[in-house]
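User: Please predict structures.

Assistant: First:
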Amino acid sequence: MTNALQSILVYRYQGAWVFDYASKGLDKEPFVAGIDKMLDLLADGRSQLLVTFSHRPFPGCLTLKWMRADMGGNWYRTDKPRRMVGWLCPALLNFFYAPPLRLYVKVGAT
């Protein structure tokens, strides 16, 4: 595993939530298939968010539970702030050796 806590800057670009990870060649990598809706809910009107995540729980985090692999990515669900399901693309493996069974996430202002 890499560092316990990792963060990315997530921002709106042409109507989509995206992030950059230059060292891995990712530029404006979009969040789709439900994860975008989760970010909409958590954004509270902001167009830029700092998303901190880990394979271990940390204070103030939400829990995403792994459901299944699909099309190279992975489906996760959360029950808070309400029950939602979303797909994380294969870019997840730039941060973890394998998809975590639990992904702990905190979204905040930048």
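Second:
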Amino acid sequence: MRRREFISGVGGAVVAWPRLTRAEQNTIPVVGMLRTTPANASAHLVEPFQRGLKDAGFVVGQNVAIEYHWAEGRLE
């Protein structure tokens, strides 16, 4: 009986494998923008940055995510 349970468990994993690999491929890339300046001093760069991504075929929230990090002048 153990042999049958093992074989059906392996068979189930083989059937589920393609679904799992497709699920991993649906993740969207994350692009980071890191600036040493305060956020308000670099705000004018965000829109052109997003426009450049859009020109390259990336639309924020659809096929790319952006993470913004501002060091606020702290270089450490």
